[in-house]
Amino acid sequence: MVECIIEDDEIMVLQEQLGEWDNLNHLIICKMTGEAAIIDPFSGKYWLDICQKNDWQLNQVWLSHTHWDHCKGVGELGDCEIWAHELEFERGWDGSRSHIWQHPPNTSVTHKLGNLKFEMHCTPGHSPGHTTIIGHGFVNSGDCLFLGRCGRTDLFGGDIDSQRKSLIYLREKLQEIPTDWLVLPGHQYPLQDGSNPTFLSVEQLLSNNEALMAVDDDAKWNRLTFLAFDDNMAEKARRQRVKNQ
Fold first, then answer.
1. Global pTM value
2. 233, pLDDT greater than 90
3. What angle do CA 117, 120, 123 make, to 5 degrees?
4. Which residues span the domain enclosing 157?
């Protein structure tokens, strides 16, 4: 069931978990103009139906990155502007219909939705052009940073050193914003205490995220078990790297 997790006079943010990979989708609505953007649509039709029922104009798609489960619904979204970072071309994103962010890693640009402005931060590591979105009470961290850990770095286009640099950069940005803003990840995964929230406050995340607490210590960082996995996706990435050499 779709849930409204943020609402004030300017903005509304809806969240829904979709698909077998526990993807979290987020719809951002500018309340002054009725314009909406969907982040990482697993199902385009699902969000089009919601927008049509509420008389919102869904005209932008923001891709944190271009793994299939984060852009699966793009083809159902008609004339929407599709936004992704140009570095995603390095992992094979075809860029069709795309509007491109071009700023360097660990920097940001301003992006508008109606009367709202957001910071789009390039945070590579999980993918070469991963983008983290910050503004108006939330941080959408995609697969760069989950609530209890961070995204894997062993898929094609991933890089463990870039991920570490991005986490250090993102931690600094999190420390600059209000502690009660919400962190919205790209997937729902259980925390070490067994709870399974779909968002945390910035304060809660900074105090409990295993990856952020390891980035300053080589030994702790190298002991993290979730940066790489021995599975079919890792094997596919290895074959793709060999093919592209």
1. 0.96
2. no
3. 160
4. 3-243
